[in-house]
Amino acid sequence: MKLQTNIQSLQGRIRVPGDKSISHRSIMFGSLAKGETKVYDILRGEDVLSTMQVFRDLGVTIEDNCDVVTIQGVGFGGLKAPQNKLDMGNSGTSIRLISGVLAGQDFQVEMFGDDSLSKRPMDRVTIPLRQMGVEVSGQTDRDLPPLTMRGSKALKPIHYQLPVASAQVKSALIFAALQADGESVIIEKEKTRNHTEDMIKQFGGHIAVDGKEIRVLGGQSFTGQKVVVPGDISSAAFWLVAGLIVPNSKIILENVGINETRTGILDVIKAMGGKLELSDIDPIAKSATITVESSDLHGTEIGGDIIPRLIDELPIIALLATQANGRTVISDAEELKVKETDRIQVVADALNAMGATIEPTADGMIIDGKSQLHGANINTYGDHRIGMMTAIAGLIAKKGDLVLERAEAINTSYPSFFSDLEALIHG
Ligand code: SPQ
Fold this sequence. Notes:
- The chain is an alpha/beta fold.
- 30% of the residues lie in helices and 26% in strands.
- The protein has two domains: 2-17 and 230-425, Enolpyruvate transferase domain (UDP-n-acetylglucosamine1-carboxyvinyl-transferase, Chain); 20-228, Enolpyruvate transferase domain (UDP-n-acetylglucosamine1-carboxyvinyl-transferase, Chain, Alpha-beta prism), CATH 3.65.10.
- The protein contains twelve helices and 24 strands.
- Strands 3, 4, 5, 14 and 15 form a five-stranded mixed sheet that branches. The chain has a four-stranded mixed sheet with strand order 2-16-18-17. Strands 6-7-9-8 form a four-stranded mixed sheet.
- Helix 3 (92-102) runs parallel beside helix 5, helix 4 runs parallel beside helix 5 (167-177) and helix 7 packs parallel to helix 9 (314-322).
- The longest helix has 13 residues, at 20-32.
- The structure holds ligand SPQ.
């Protein structure tokens, strides 16, 4: 696909699609609750559609009339053995969280995914789930998918210190702990996104969180709810950066989720001197309108406990850094290597091919700013965030064609990305 280059200005007001992490979890909690759940503004990206199909395969009735998704919840006890292998597509969130859900189910399943998912390590969830009494096996010593798993109705509670900062591992263990016999204690390495914890409370359950320590009692039941999904800050991030680096731009993003475990990118933009303003802040919905304008930026250091608060935004933050004055150093981000691609190497390769100066390191990148970008042939390798980052980089490429291979990967999390881009180009 040929992308737009050398754009003179971006102007306008858009609403990005619903938050992917919250959308997945709304299907899961809606299915595991008793009674009806209605989900508004859900993301209809391929990852969430995978989660929806898996719960249908597990016997849950889920209807989508394009306005609202209605789920007839069956409770933890109502899931049925699937007739087929469970297809998790490209979605790490689906396979890891659903492993936790199925840990307490006394039937065998096989879970598989696409090429990219088949390279991602599942041992981070299989190791603790085995300790709880689950039988599970995968490929190689890292338990790559496909996974074959048989849960247990007699799950043991767990006391587990996470070796990685991962909301997916934490959430998988919370789902398993909700079905165990007694209290589990899960201790995070760093605080990560807390949508699972928030949703337990929203669906009428209990969870005790004290800093990085989480206590969950097994045997809880949930009641169906109305869920309104805010816009995804990880999708908004592409327009935040576009508005800052394309000259003569002003972009207004409505209804963006601002849960504090996700807003690291806003802190980085402020630290780099970007013009950014929050308005219409809704503390209950945890959402706001965010306005950005073209800005003079300076390099910064990004590392430590901010990393889980912006992990998915690091590819687009790397692009931002190529346009700042001075050097930006990203560290403590080795988790980037086990995403849809090795996002340290793939980001550095893509942007360097376009004229940037990025040195990949063991746990991040060193980025020299004020690079003049140009067109190139870039492959997403099936990674949606690499595709969107490249499309935004193209907007400031001064010469040459920019061609993106496997651009369809963007449908994973943002099917309307290119129509939103057109709207901003035409003001
Ligand atoms: O679902 P998937 O494929 O893992 O998606 C990604 C993404 O870029 O959209 C990561 F590749 O987001 C993860 C995120 O990195 C979504 C997520 C969640 O919803 O719990 C948590 C993070 O992953 P992790 O491994 O840090 O727990």
